[in-house]
Amino acid sequence: MEDKRLAEDLLKKYLDAKATPKEIEQVENWYNSYEGKNKTLSQSQKAVIERRMLITLQQHIQQRPKAKTAIIRNNTFLQIAASTLLICSIGLFWLKTRPHPQQKTQQPLLIARTQANEKKTITLTDGSEITLNPSSRLSYPAKFAASFREISLEEGEAFFKIAHDEKRPFNVQLPGKLYTKVLGTSFTIRAFKASNALNISVSTGKVAVGNKNQVFGTLVKGQQMTYDKNKETAIISQTPVPDTRIVFEGINLRQALQKLAYIYSIKIELNPASLGNLGCTATFHSKQKPEEILNIICSLYNLKYDTTPDHQSFKIYKQ
């Protein structure tokens, strides 16, 4: 059991970009034995490979191999397989890398651009809204694919308010071969070609940032990342959070609480679960604390909630 836990911890460190060079080499060497596999896999094939990878990890941890020089490779398939293994226990869906190019289908692209003194808001087919600041250019498909959503900020600055969709992660391709990946959140990207620095700041939710080789980190509300395009290095720091509207419209209580849990990185449980079928239409602001929002929601439905001492888990129930 101890070896299994060490193996899972090592995979998580690798996906979090926190592994040491020795640990990176261990994981990538184990991956090489599967590199020749077909990268379009069924769920059952993934499950078999995941089990074999975990067994191999346990065996190598027991052997404690000597360290060698680490080389970072394009590891899309490994992160898909390893992330699938971890999702079942710790829900790290947003840490997987961007979709493999072979998964993409050709879609006609639309171009939105702004002049030096102009702002423009674009509403995408999934309900996401993007506000382009002056001197910016964005390309996006006329219709998103069934399994993923992807656009490209080619130049400039934009504020993204992404519609939540657990089945279709949202990717933003950026200059310098950088990308962001989210499920549903709001954030700002500043990426001018004339500047060596690229900046990403998060207003609500979580945003994973990486390139083809690694994930630099997952930003949460109040954090920003400054990326040096020449050195390919990233620095994460704190930033003031702008006030953003949180809108629940035409959804049920279960969907509203799922969105709230994602935005604030908390856990919310409904008891009984049937309460989730209640309709929910409301507007809140990101500067409100989750307790304040839950107080209002519970008062509307004559409900109560309990919370853990760290205010990270909430249980809503009938009075």
TrEMBL record:
The keyword Transmembrane helix applies. One of its GO terms (molecular function) is sigma factor antagonist activity. Keywords: Membrane, Transmembrane, Transmembrane helix. Residues 245-307 form the Protein FecR C-terminal domain. InterPro entries: FecR, FecR_C, Ferrdict_sens_TM. The chain crosses the membrane at residues 76-95. Residues 113-207 form the FecR protein domain. This is FecR family protein. It comes from Pedobacter cryoconitis.
